[in-house]
Amino acid sequence: RRGEMAKSTQLIDNEVFRAYATYTAIVLLKMMLMSLITAYFRITRKAFVNPEDTASFGKGESAKKYLRTDPDVERVRRGHLNDLENIVPFVGIGLLYALSGPELSTALLHFRIFTGARILHTLAYLIPLPQPGRGLSWAVGYSVTFSMAYKVLKTAWLL
Amino acid sequence: RRGEMAKSTQLIDNEVFRAYATYTAIVLLKMMLMSLITAYFRITRKAFVNPEDTASFGKGESAKKYLRTDPDVERVRRGHLNDLENIVPFVGIGLLYALSGPELSTALLHFRIFTGARILHTLAYLIPLPQPGRGLSWAVGYSVTFSMAYKVLKTAWLL
Amino acid sequence: RRGEMAKSTQLIDNEVFRAYATYTAIVLLKMMLMSLITAYFRITRKAFVNPEDTASFGKGESAKKYLRTDPDVERVRRGHLNDLENIVPFVGIGLLYALSGPELSTALLHFRIFTGARILHTLAYLIPLPQPGRGLSWAVGYSVTFSMAYKVLKTAWLL
């Protein structure tokens, strides 16, 4: 039993899995960064949503005016939600893809393009860049995940 | 080391894991489809949220009128968020469940019912079907994930 | 082949992985609970968003008045979205962390603090507690995930 246990933790020795772990950690940290940017804009723009968050600005009407939406805050939140919608499928399908035995070079290509596309997507959303900048970076990431899903279904198919 | 590396990639040879990979890829692709449906309704209903997305409709007031919410767009977006709220637990708990050594037939039953329920949920949301159609399909998927979580906690419990 | 297949399902025998499975199931079930709390408030506050959900209240104007937002419903929904934004990175990075060979005691420390922080975050959001209660519990969970990501990148780094 001990031998098996030792082995079962060695997934991280597999090079494709190491690449998956590296890029997944990077894109998830990038997604987590959106929380900090939201907080930054909420504080600098004084735009909050929960009454208890404005208590330090005083009581009653003087604090109530900070319960409002701000275009910059809403923009970051949309970028954050778009990350959830796209990074969740990457993390889930990417794990299955990494375990489906792809070539390291092919896997790296997928992971690198996806990660680059999502960083560009965030920049395009926050700067903002004119379209089709954001649309194209979204489509590239989407296509990479789709390509990995195809490989997973081809390899694992058991319905 | 090479032996271990080779072995560690063979998770995909396990039949329960292959079934998990197949159904997870399918439900994640279904979730990704919501992005395309949102884009379709935004373009056909001319209802956008980012000013840079309406630039092709001209400048100033003529483009500004397309920065609006549309009931069909909002409906797809609610369906998408509901997918995130329910498919994320399925993917996470389902992976642990697949590794907890269930019978293949039991695992397939869980995966198939969940996948069917989520496809029905999307149809019920988008058509829309009268209640309790959407509510029931949601509850079925929820119960399947709960049942898998019970098996995971029974097998793995280490607090 | 059968030998490998048997082995590949034994990941759940690894103690760190068992701890990961236990805490991941708990935080995902906690996140799923938010759906039930939302439904509870929607029904008791009679605040719905889909016209088909108010059909049981009658037709036309009498049902239309229940298509409205309610502060309590919106509060639970914000807590749910915050869970998605923070529990998704925990589940993804935590899996890689569990496979990166940490000490069991260190891993348990990470998992326990994260889980406790997220339960406190939910309580702070729903009661609600005065700030910085919610902010601190959010920051603690965020830091734990960051710490696990650091360990993953240090162990697996392959760019």
Descriptive notes:
- Chain A is an all-alpha fold and 159 residues long.
- Chain A has a single domain, classed as Membrane associated eicosanoid/glutathione metabolism-like domain (Four Helix Bundle (Hemerythrin (Met), subunit A)).
- Chain A contains 6 helices and no strands.
- In chain A, helix 4 runs parallel beside helix 6 and helix 5 packs antiparallel against helix 6.
- The longest helix of chain A is centred in the N-terminal third of the chain and has 30 residues.
- The interface between A and B is large, with 40 and 37 residues.
Per-chain topology:
The structure is a homotrimer of 159-residue chains.
Chain A: H1 2-8, H2 15-44, H3 61-64, H4 71-98, H5 104-126, H6 133-156
Helix pairs in contact in A: 2-4, 2-5, 4-5, 4-6, 5-6
